[in-house]
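Predict structure. Input: HAD-superfamily hydrolase, subfamily IIB, 305 residues.
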Amino acid sequence: MTAHIPARAANQLPAHSGGAGSDVVLELGNLGPWRPRLVATDLDGTLLTSQGTVSDRTRAAMDASWAAGVPVVGVTGRGPRLLDSVRTTLGGRGVAVLAQGGFVVDLDRDEVLRTVGLPRDRAQAVVDAIEAVTGELVLAVEDADTQGAALSPLRVQHGFDWPYPEPADLLPRHDVLPEGPVLKVFLRSETLGQDELLALARSVTDPSDAEVTHAGLGFIEVLPPGITKASGLAVALERFGVAASDVLVFGDMPNDLPMITAVNEAGGRSVAVANAHPAVLAAATGRTGGHDADGVARYLEALQQ
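Output follows.
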């Protein structure tokens, strides 16, 4: 039997972080002469507050960046069903990288630049391999690879507790994976934390079969091979004609590490918010205040001086 859960109200986004470092204010000092040609930022836990909103200060900093000729690109794990919320966050302009890089949209032209799916049989094989080392997991699936499909409910197994404001169909385990390809599969454990679950999943998942990551929401994500925020950001950079060496990137969670690493290796600049995961704090070349202290805005303001 299928149970249907309606969308939550738009202001009922999941509380993201709000923990250690979220309200920390850091003294940035002199950031040197380097200036970006493009800003790429994660949304939840980085650009947005714990309530999932854009503060007035952050909105003003984003507008000032655009006015200076520096586009702001949102790079998020949110899927196509949440495109409207991403569009609102970004002011309806530029490029939005969704689904950890698997779904990229030009917001100005309302044009999908990239959509990549994982075939059902491969997704099932990866899930089976992971469950062999973790025990049984609870599943949800993002299968909306077109704008039309994004109007249909998310496919969620009973017991998953999906956190975002979008309609979801609660399904028995054997009906969660659709017949066609999926953008990503979400896996939640009742006994393992997200870092431990991710480590076990990566130990049995060949990158040629799938990418595995987590965004700090209590579950891990299985993605098509090669789909990361780095590869999604590359699509946006091509659209704008900007090299990774000219990018300023902000992030907070392990799913941000690929784009942080790519920008670092190219000679750009990466910045972790104060509430970031330890792995992100270690990888980023710079640091700013927490997401509830307008950390991204404060950094952009310092550069704009």
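The mean pLDDT is 91.
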